[in-house]
């Protein structure tokens, strides 16, 4: 009896230990959170009320031109955009945009009836660009400004990190993106997330395309949108259509988070990008409103931030065929 009792006691102790481990694992694992704002549904980005939301807008470099932001957002809205992607800094490469500043940017987006895509730019070209930081570091930044994001799920999308890998070791993008998403969900950040592709955003290795399903599955909220940047890699209509259609057919949410009419690595087919996005009902966000330098000044849409002085690129994206004025629909949350 004594031996049997001792054995039973050991079994009970072992089971208790297993239960403790399981409980600990469950406590650490993020749990699914019911969507309360912008969210992914059946491969589409929709609003809290279920209405389809198709992004039509541009990028604005807030972190480098903070004093320009209030007027820039007003001017961008006046040109009929429904979304603006805002450049922020974690403080690793440029001046940090702190919690108060992020909250102010979101408030200004709301004041101008724009959906706000907030992106951490310091990850740009990680592994190839000196000084670029990891997605893990960007996740820490978002957690640090969490109070500016909480309650803004109808209005703000968190773009994990801009172009988070260059062309070196791009395969690591998959695991790093999954880890960053889980880290944010563990920190109770439940905004829709946006994941940029590697290869400076252009995914010519098809790393994002071929692993997007597993990345979305790793998000307990199932609320991650994928973002492809289209520059010289996408210089034919066939390439544009093939890439975007694969996501649509797989019911994976995709937007063109950046594109231009020209670039140093080739001549993107902006007509095909805009026409294909429109035909597939996908969002696009052109680069960028104003302030470009370093040889890419041609990507300015407005000369010196003046809406009355749109460049040829600005005229094209705002007023041309399949452009913003002709296709953008304001988010229903503002109507």
C-alpha-based Rg, rounded: 22 Å
Q: Report the biggest beta sheet as strand number plus sense, adding barrel if it closes.
A: 8 strands, parallel, barrel
The general outline is globular
Q: Report helical residue fraction.
A: 25-40%
Number of DSSP strand runs: 10
Word description of this protein:
- This protein has 335 residues and is α/β, with parallel strands linked by helices.
- Helices cover 38% and strands 14% of the residues.
- It is built from eleven helices and ten strands.
- It has helices spanning 2-28, 69-78, 99-111, 135-144, 146-149, 173-186, 207-218, 237-249, 270-280, 312-319, 324-327; strands at 39-41, 44-46, 56-60, 83-88, 115-120, 156-159, 193-196, 224-230, 254-259, 283-286.
- The strands form two sheets. An eight-stranded parallel β-barrel has the order 3-4-5-6-7-8-9-10, surrounded by six helices. A two-stranded antiparallel ribbon has the order 1-2.
- Helix 8 runs parallel beside helix 9.
- The radius of gyration is 22 Å and the shape is globular.
- The termini are far apart.
